[in-house]
Write a structure and sequence with these properties.
heterotrimer; A mainly alpha (316); B mainly alpha (291); C alpha+beta (491); A: 316 residues; mainly alpha; globular; B: 291 residues; 12 helices; 73% helix; elongated
Chain lengths: 316, 291, 491
């Protein structure tokens, strides 16, 4: 087991090196630069621009810049934002809470609701409920999230006035109820796709399990149906869900980014978009690396957990 | 084995697949809707009395069903229906072309890595893994923000974020097929590597490829709409379903139909492709599992 | 790090300049006891020696006394080669800064430069020496996250990407402040900003203001007041004067005549902006009245082009001597109104045989080398040509200010006119207002005749204030209208 984990870790670190090189190359090879924003509106001359370019070290060759950045990153110095000079890690951590709040809420909704729909759909396969759930899930997966967000805002904020149109809290309020009030719309919008995903996966996993021999054996032995479902079927159907959760992570993060842009939610997605707009390379790189690390940890944990939970899997 | 016998052997599963597919009514509906969308966006604009870029500033924001404009007019007094058709044409084209590129790259990389394995295969698949570490949208935006937006760039960008899954699927298929007897047999007959790869192995992986391709179109349409919605996609005066939404956004309170029409069109198109993909999956290989 | 516009709203609350410019364009002393003039001896007659007398009752937020040393430190910091100052225009001329007394500082200018009054008055804030001198790297100091100033508000807290809170500084040396705290909320989406203003979640919508399409509705809201005010930015089409057909003045005049400006102003911008023909805002002392008025006259445009030998070729596009009358137009992608304007222009210009194509880019790309190094054909842009309230446009229109030709400045139009150069040099040396008015008036006529830019309208901003909040005074001489929150109060 330890060897397996070490092996996977080594792979993950190698992946991170490739990821960082790809990310760095994409950002720095593109036209434009962090200084463009000043050029148009501010009273900066070309001389000023050249000077700041030099001061930021942007006049060095790309491999040198990359190695410099990478070396610092290993030592925990992820650089400073070009926009306000703040350390990248602290910029990220100050936006992380909002994103996690959104993602966690949406996941809880999705797991509970999607799980329920999936199990019920599997048990009553081809029933009206199952058909509706299948069609509904497919439509939910096909609706553009941002458009759904816009429609939500139009109906619930503009027309009905029930929910705020964006942001995480009312200035000067920030009580639990206020936070909850702001959370509802973006969390539900994000949960829509997630619920559909979880429902579909749960359904197929459950279907696979209830057709297994041991379930039939249990039935033949006259075990009560509810016991079969909870003790045997559900537990075994939930196992593959661990992997799903791990692999779903990038999608979830991407979905959060979309929801954040529509609801001006002050999280990582918003930060990412703004930072790209400003060519704030250190922050953009920071977020790319951070999300890659999260994705890797997600799949790593999923694999390990799965191996631990399922005795049938032998890893060497 | 005679050639006649061979063809009957191949026909039988094809018939079964078609029967399974036909039973899948939603997939059939999806296919019909896609056909309607394609025909509508290809020929529809010629049936309308309005040009999609003709500006009539005096007739801004005419609501739907008021006068000659069936779906009303937009912020520059252009006919929304005409723009919707042209927008669908652009969005669907991007979806198809991006899919083709992603498929080509994905199949090539996957087949190569799966067939040769070893160091080349490992390096290629690690590259795939690395690319998959970025959440698609993060990668897409990072790329999009840096490149001049337009039809070609948008298409290539979307393809660039979509080929990795295909590569993975094809690699796995080819790797397992390679060990099977007919590949070994072909090798024994002295066929060249390339020939075996693309004449023997890849065709045998056609089922998952077709399904992945269909689902890929759906994904590409969604991504295009999001990119254009953020202003990084198709540029004016050309319409795409996404940039219509982008333009409509600030008029959401006063002219909501501008946002509703393209949004519904996107949902319709994407749902259709997803249903079609689902149906194809059931028909071609019921046990296949691609997310 | 050089700041962005958002920051200016904060700077005005936390820091103080030596003097500021009021809405009427007058200099009003702030940290200085009086505004230096030749009459009061603050300026020498040749404009080379500046003697500034300072207030002696000003304290930094941490209680330390403000002195002439801080002024000397601030100006030297801007000129420190290691400091990432945003701009050194004007500052680089300052030499030999001497602290004569705790409340008096003198310096010498390398050359007379009258716009420096305005630069000091609206763009330069004084920072505390006693804090920053201890810092090794002024660019990445913790000071940025907890600045100490002499302004009416002290730093409270900052939640990045969300808000910044400032609290009243009770020991403020000037008028006010009357409100206890100010929260600057970061709302990047103007639609959401408006919705929040409408529902009463924000008291004042600054910086971006209210989108034009909401203004009519906003004016009907109960308990809200809407102010539409001009800004010093001029929305214009920037031609690259070295590019193809655009280099021909006749072409520019024809294009200008073919623009349906009224449709742009009335329909796309809901009648909010005002027409202009100059790069100087109409409210400024230096504004030149009576410049030739634009008229929408496509027929005349066609006649002009016909007469100049631009003949219609294939596809209705004109050409002359192998040069086609076609070009691209760029602006920041995602700017809705500008994108609409472009599409209108395509149609307007097609009618006179000119083909324009849209080539928009994200902000970070377009304003980089593309704009700086004049790689564009034409651009729609809003530019504030003024240095504070000063009409010195040497960096915009001086022939030595073309970055694409190695010049220092941002004359990205590549405008070159010896007469303009002469007027610019003369204006910068003049300290007498009447003389300067004549000089810059002549310059405005020249730029209008050459059509170095095709002005669309003078910039505007619609800001909403909740009823009961008093003291809001738009100030065209400042980059931002919330410059005087210190004087705001709830009635």
């Amino acid at each position: 087991m330890a060897r397996y984990v070490a092996n996977r870790l080594a792979q993950a670190i190698m992946l991170l090196v490739i990821v960082s090189a790809i990310g760095f190359a994409i950002l720095h090879l593109a036209p434009g630069g962090p200084l463009s924003q000043f050029a148009a509106s501010a009273q900066m001359t070309q001389e000023d621009l050249d000077r700041v370019t030099r001061q930021l070290g942007l006049d060095r060759s790309l491999p040198i810049q990359y190695l410099d950045w990478f070396g610092r990153m290993l030592r925990g110095d992820w650089g400073h934002s070009y926009r306000d000079g703040e350390a990248v890690l602290s910029v990220i951590s100050s936006h992380l809470g909002a994103t996690l709040e959104l993602m966690a809420t949406a996941t809880i909704i999705a797991v509970l609701l999607g799980g329920w729909i999936g199990v019920l759909g599997a048990l009553r396969r081809y029933s009206l409920f199952d058909s509706l759930a299948t069609v509904g899930a497919m439509i939910a997966l096909s609706i553009p999230t941002f458009w759904f967000g816009l429609v939500t805002i139009y109906i619930f904020s503009v027309k009905l006035g029930w929910l705020p149109a964006g942001n995480r809290e009312t200035v000067g309020d920030g009580s639990f109820l206020d936070l909850l009030h702001h959370l509802i719309a973006p969390a539900l919008v994000l949960a829509l796709v997630e619920t559909a995903m979880w429902g579909r996966f749960m359904r197929s996993s459950m279907l696979e399990v209830i057709n297994q021999d041991y379930i039939r054996t249990a039935r033949a032995k006259g075990m009560p149906e509810w016991r079969i479902l909870t003790v045997h079927a559900l537990r075994n159907a939930l196992l593959p869900m661990i992997t799903v959760a791990g692999l779903q992570f990038p999608t979830l993060l991407g979905g959060a980014l979309v929801a954040e842009t529509v609801f001006t939610w002050p999280g990582m997605g918003r930060l990412f978009l703004d930072s790209i707009g400003y060519r704030d390379y250190p922050v953009v790189m920071g977020i790319l690396m951070f999300s890659a690390i999260m994705v890797l940890i997600g799949s790593l944990l999923a694999d390990i957990l799965y191996a631990v939970v399922d005795p049938r899997i032998r890893v060497g | 084995m005679t050639s006649a016998a061979l063809s009957t052997v191949q026909l039988a599963p094809g018939h079964a697949a078609w029967r399974r597919f036909r039973r899948h009514r939603l997939a059939l509906a999806g296919a019909v809707i896609i056909l309607v969308l394609v025909l509508g966006s290809a020929f529809g604009p010629y049936l309308l009395p309005f040009d999609d870029t003709y500006i009539d500033i005096m007739k801004r924001f005419a609501p739907p069903l008021s006068g000659a404009h069936i779906l009303g007019t937009d912020e520059l007094g252009r006919d929304v229906l005409a723009r919707l058709m042209m927008g669908a044409r652009v969005s669907l084209s991007i979806g198809f072309v991006a899919m083709v590129i992603a498929m080509a790259v994905g199949i090539a990389v996957g087949a190569f890595a799966g067939f040769f394995g070893g160091v080349v295969g490992a390096v290629l698949m690690r590259l795939v893994d690395a690319m998959l570490c970025f959440p698609t949208i993060f990668l897409l935006l990072a790329l999009a923000a840096l490149i001049e937006p337009g039809f070609v760039t948008t298409t290539v960008l979307i393809a660039a974020t979509a080929w990795m899954w295909v590569a993975r699927v094809v690699e796995a298929q080819v790797r397992s097929l390679r060990e099977r007897e007919f590949a070994v047999a072909a090798l024994a007959f002295g066929s060249s590597n390339l020939r075996i790869m693309f004449r023997e192995l890849v065709p045998n992986a056609v089922a998952p490829i077709v399904v992945a391709a269909t689902l890929n179109v759906a994904k590409a349409i969604l991504l295009e709409s999001y990119l254009s919605y953020l202003g990084y996609g198709i540029q004016p005066p050309a319409a795409s379903l996404g940039n219509m939404l982008n333009n409509a956004q600030i008029y959401l309170t006063s002219a909501p139909w501008l946002a509703i029409a393209p949004g519904l069109a996107i949902t319709l198109a994407v749902t259709s492709f997803n249903f079609l993909g689902d149906g194809l999956r059931d028909a071609l290989d019921p046990r296949m599992n691609i997310p | 790090m050089p700041g962005i516009e958002v920051d200016q709203g904060i700077w005005w609350q936390v820091f103080s300049p030596l003097w500021f410019i009021d809405p009427d364009g007058k200099f009003v002393p702030d940290l200085a006891r009086e505004v230096p003039t030749i009459e009061n001896g603050g300026l020498s007659a040749d404009g080379l020696t500046w003697n500034i007398k300072l207030r002696s009752d000003v304290k930094w937020h941490d209680g330390t006394a403000f002195t002439a040393e801080d002024v000397k430190f601030s100006l030297e910091l801007i000129n420190n080669p290691d400091f990432r100052a945003r701009s050194r225009v004007g500052h680089s001329l300052v030499k030999d800064i001497k602290v004569v007394a705790p409340d008096e500082v003198h310096w010498r200018m390398e050359a007379p430069y009258s716009p420096y009054m305005s630069i000091l008055g609206s763009l330069t804030f004084i920072v505390p020496k006693h804090i920053l001198e201890k810092v090794t790297d002024p660019n990445a100091s913790p000071f940025h996250n907890a600045p100490v100033g002499t302004g009416p508000f002290r730093w409270g807290e900052r939640v990045p990407g969300d808000h910044i809170q400032l609290n009243a500084h009770t020991g403020y040396h000037g008028k006010g402040p009357y409100v206890e705290r100010v929260v600057f909320k970061y709302i990047p989406d103007p639609t959401v900003l408006y919705t929040q203003f409408r529902t009463g979640q924000v008291d004042y919508t600054g910086l971006q203001g209210i989108l034009p399409n909401f203004v009519l509705e906003a004016k009907t809201l109960k308990g809200r007041k809407i102010f539409v005010s001009s800004t010093s930015s001029v929305e214009h089409i920037a031609p690259n004067l070295e590019f193809g057909a655009l280099a021909d003045r006749t072409v520019r005049e024809a294009l200008y005549l073919a623009i349906n400006k009224q449709a742009i102003i009335d329909a796309l911008n809901y009648g909010l902006p005002t027409q202009t023909e100059s790069f100087v805002p109409q409210q400024a002392w230096s504004f030149q009245q009576g410049l030739p008025q634009h008229k929408y006259d496509p027929a005349k445009a066609n006649t002009l082009l016909d007469a100049a030998g631009w003949v219609r070729g294939s596809g209705g596009v004109r050409e002359k001597g192998g040069v086609k009358l076609e070009f691209t137009n760029s602006t920041t992608s995602g700017n809705a109104v500008r994108e609409q304007t472009q599409q209108l222009l395509i149609q307007d210009w097609r009618a006179i045989g000119a083909a324009m194509r849209v080539n928009n880019m994200p902000a970070a790309v377009i304003w980089g080398d593309f704009w700086q190094q004049s790689k564009f054909n034409s651009v729609i842009v809003g530019v504030n040509f003024m240095l504070g309230s000063d009409p010195d446009v040497t960096p915009r229109f001086g022939s030595g200010a073309i970055p694409a030709k190695g010049g220092r400045g941002y004359n990205t139009y590549q405008y070159r006119n010896p007469e303009a150069d002469r007027l610019l040099a003369e204006g910068a040396k003049q300290f007498d207002l009447a003389q300067r008015k004549t000089t810059y008036g002549t310059l405005q006529k020249l730029i209008r005749d050459d059509l170095a830019i095709l002005p669309l309208f003078q910039g505007f901003i619609a800001e909403g204030v909740k009823e009961g909040l008093q003291g809001f005074r738009p100030n065209i001489n400042m980059s931002i209208n919330c410059w005087n929150i210190r004087e705001w109060y709830w009635a």
